[in-house]
Amino acid sequence: MEFRVFGAVEAVADGVRLDLGHARQRSVLAALLVDLDRPVPAERLIDRVWGDKPPLRAEGVLRTYVSRLRRVLGSAIVRRDGGYLLDAEPDDVDLHRFRDLTARARRLDDSGQALELVEQALALCTGDPFAGLGTPWFEAERQAVAAELDAAQAHRVDLALRVGRHTELLAELPLRAAERPWDERLAGQLMLALYRAGRAADALRQYRTTRDALVEHLGTEPGPELRELHRRVLDSDPRLTGSGRRVPQLLPAAPAAFTGRERELAALDVLLDRAPVAVVTGGGGVGKTWLALRWAHGHRDDFPDGRLHVDLRGFDPVAEPLAPDAVVRGFLGALGVPPREVPAEPDAQAALYRDLTADRRLLVVLDNARDTGQVAPLLPGGTSCAVLVTSRHRLTGLVATRGAVPVPVDVLDEPQAADVLARHLGADRVAAEPEAADVLARHGGGLPLALGVLAARAKAAPHVPLAALAEEVREARLDALDTGDLPTSLRAVFSASLRVLGADAVRLFGLLGLVPGPDVGVPAAAALADRPVPLVRRALRELEDAHLVQQHVPGRYRMHDLVRLHARELADDPAALERLCDHYCHVASVAAAMFTPGEPHRRPPVPPLVGPEPEFADHREAARWVDEERACLLAIAVHGQPRHAAHLSRALARYLDTSAQVHDALALHTVAAERTGDGFALTNRGFCLTRLGRPEEALPFLRRAQAVVGDDLALENLVYTQLGITVGGLGRHEEAAEFHARALAAARRGGFRHSVAVAQINCGDQDIRFGRYEQARLRLQESVDIARELGDWGLGAVALSTLGVLHGYLGDKAEADECFEQALKYSSDRVGMLRMGMLFDAAATKHRLYGPEAALPRYREALDFSRRTGYQAEQVRVHTALAGALRELGRAEEAAEHAARAEELRANLR
After folding, report:
1. What is the pLDDT of residues 766-813, one digit of tens each?
2. Is residue 655 assigned to a domain?
3. Which of 65, 78, 273, 628 is deepest in the core (most CB within 10 A)?
4. Residue 424 sits in which domain range?
5. CB 671 within 8 A of CB 648
6. Residue 267 phi/psi, 5° resolution?
7. Together in a domain, 874 and 890
8. Is the pTM of the predicted complex or chain greater than 0.70?
9. How far apart are CA 190 and CA 183, in angstroms?
10. Is 138 found in the same domain as 52?
C-alpha cells in the first residue's frame, strides 16, 4: 500500500485509490503519516486535526474516524502506548521517501548519482503537501516541507551545474529568479549557467538585477559569495567553466539531410541518464555515423569540456584500421598535452588519457570501430564522460564488460526514405516527378547511403529526368548505386564488411544470395553450403555480428535486398540452389508422412537426404515446420526445377488442405500444374478452387487430370474423390455418388486402406442423402474400423462425425451426441477443414434433433472457427444456417444480418 501527502492525502492499493472519507478523517491519517512508526497520543491527534476547535466528545469522534480508516486500511493503524501508530514502510510514504532520497544524495560524492536521487525525490512532489487540510498544525508542517523542497531544488541546481547541464537549466532559472529577485543563491546559480553557456554579459546583467532588488527591498548589498562570483565573471576566470584546460571540438559537421530516427535518438539519451557508453550497430550504409553525429551535435551543450571524434576505419574499403595507441596520442594533443610531454609507452599514454578525462564532462565519438579490442583503450577514465561508438559489429564484449548500451539501427521505412530523398533533391524536383522519386526511394532499400548515392547522381545531372535514373535502377540496382568512389560504392561498402570475416562465413554469404525465399533456417543453410550444422551456425553468427544477415526470429536469417544482390554476385557454387531445393523436398516428405502416415500412395517417393536429417518428435512439430517454411517452399516451387514444384505440390497437399491454408495451397498447386502438367497438381489445384467456393472453375482442371490418369490407381482415386466433392457442391448428387464409387473401386484395387475409408465416408454421405441409411451405416462402420486399424483418429473423427449425421436422420439423439462428442474430441488437436466440417455437422444435427435454440451455440462455434482459419466458403455456409435458425426463432433482425453477411462473402468468392 502506498500513502501520499503531496497533493490530496491518499492511500493506493494495487493501483486503486482507496476511499478515505471526508477531510477530517483524512486529517487523522495525515497526522499519523508525519510521525510514521511512532505512537501519537490521542490528545495530540485531536490538536493536529481540530486545532483550538475540537468537537464535543472529541476522543469518541477520533475513535470513530480511526475505526473507519481501519476498515479501509486493514491493520495499518494500531493502538500502542496510549496512542495511535501507522505501521508502514518509509518507502511507502511519499514524504518519507522524499526525505530519504535527499539525505542519501547529500552523502554521495558522485554528482551524477546524487542528481539522479534528488530528481527522483522531487518527482514525488506532485502538489502542495496536505492540500485541503487547514489547521494551524498542518499549516506549520506545510511551511516546513516547503522549506525542504526549496533546499532540494537548490541542491539539484548545484548538482546539475557540476555535471554540465547549464543549458538545460537556462530553460527554468530565469523565470524562478524573476519570481524571487533577492534570492542570492538562485542568482548565483543563474549567473554561472549563463557564463558557461557563453553569455557573460547576461550573467553580469543578472548580478545588477539582483543587487538592485536587494537594495530596494532589503536595504542591503549582495553577500560576499555573490560578489566574488561577479568578480570572477568580470575576470573571465577559467575555473568558472569547470576547468582551465583546453576544450577540444573535433566533431565533423552535422549531416544535412538527416531525418527520422526518433526512436534511436531517444535511446541514445540514456547516455545522460545512466550509462557512460552506447554502441550504435547496424549494417554498412544504414546511417550509423549520421545518427551519432546528429545526436552529438544536438547535445553539444551537455558536454562543456569538449567533444572528441575519430574515424577508426574499422571497415574502410581501402585503409587499414587505426591502431588504438595512435588514436590516444591524437586525443592527448586535442586535450592540450604538448608532444614532448606525451609518454613513450602506449600503456603510459593510455593511463595519461584516462587521468585527463577522469573528472571531465566530455563526449567521445568512436566511429566505425572494428571490434572491442580497438575501442577498449580509448574509453576515458571516471564516469562523467560519455562515449558513443558506431560499428558494423555488435561489440558484445563491450556490452558485457563495460555496461555499454546497444542501440541497433535498421533501414529506414518508406516514408523516412522518401523524406531523405526529398531533403537531398529538394521538394520541387520530387513533386515534379513523384512516381520516379517513389521508385528511387523504394529501390534505395531504406539505406541512407544508397539514397545519398541516388541523390548525388540526380544532382550531378539536373537536366536529366528522374525517370531515366529510375529506369536504370530497375534494370541494375547495384550498378546504379555505384558512384566510382570507393567510400560511396555500395559494393565496396558491403565488401569491406566481408574483409574481416573468416573464409566459411564469406562463402556462406555468397550462397545465401541464392536463397529464393524470404529467409532461411539453419538446416537449410547447411544443405545450401554442404557443410555441417555447427560450422554453419558459427558462420551465421559471424555474418549476424557484421550485420550482413539478421536473425529476425530465433533460428531464421534474412538479408537486406541490396545485400542479397551483392551476395548473389559472389556465389561460386552452381549446385548450391539444387541442393537447397532437394533438401526442402526431402524434409517436406518426412513432415507429410508424419502428418498423414496412412496415405503414402498420395505422396511422392521420399527423395535422398540432402543436408541434416530432420528430427520431428510428432506430427505437431512437422506441421510447425511446414508453417514456418511455407513462403520458402512456395519460392522453391517457383525457382527450383519443375520436379521440385511437382514434388512439393503432391507432398504437402493433404496438410495444406486439412489446415485450411487454401490460398497458399492454390498458389503452390498452380505453379506445379503450370510448370509440369502433373495430374496430382492439376487435381489439387481444382480442389482448392472447390474449397474456395468456385466449383465451376475447378472442373476443367479436374477433367484435365482425369485425362492423364492412365494406370495410376492413386491418382485415379484422388481425381474421382475430388470430382465427387466438386459436383456434389453443385447439387449433382447422383453424379457425385458415381464418382465416389469409382474412387472406392480404385482404392480397393490399389490396396489403399486409408483411401478406402475416405471413399466409404464420401459414399456413406451420399447414401444418407438418398435415404439408404443401413448401407450408409455399414460403410461408415468400415471407415471407423480402418481408422482404428491405422491408428489415425483424424480419419476416425471424420467417420464418427458422419455417423453422427446418420443418427441424426434416424432420430437417435443419444447416439448422435456420442458420435459428435467423440469426433470433436479426436479432432481437438487438428485444425482446418476436418474440424470445421464436424462443427457444422454437429450444429446441423442438433438443429434437426433438438430445434434451433439448441443448435445456436454449435453454429457460433463453427462460425468462430471458420473466421480464425480465414475460410470464407465455410463462413457462407454457417451464416446461411444461422440465418435459418434465427428466423425459426422469430429473431428476424439477427437473421437478416447473417443472411446479408453470407451474401457479401459469397460475392467475394465470385
Report:
1. 999 999 999 999 999 999 999 999 888 788 888 998 999 999 999 999
2. no
3. 65
4. 414-490
5. no
6. -65, -35
7. yes
8. no
9. 11
10. yes
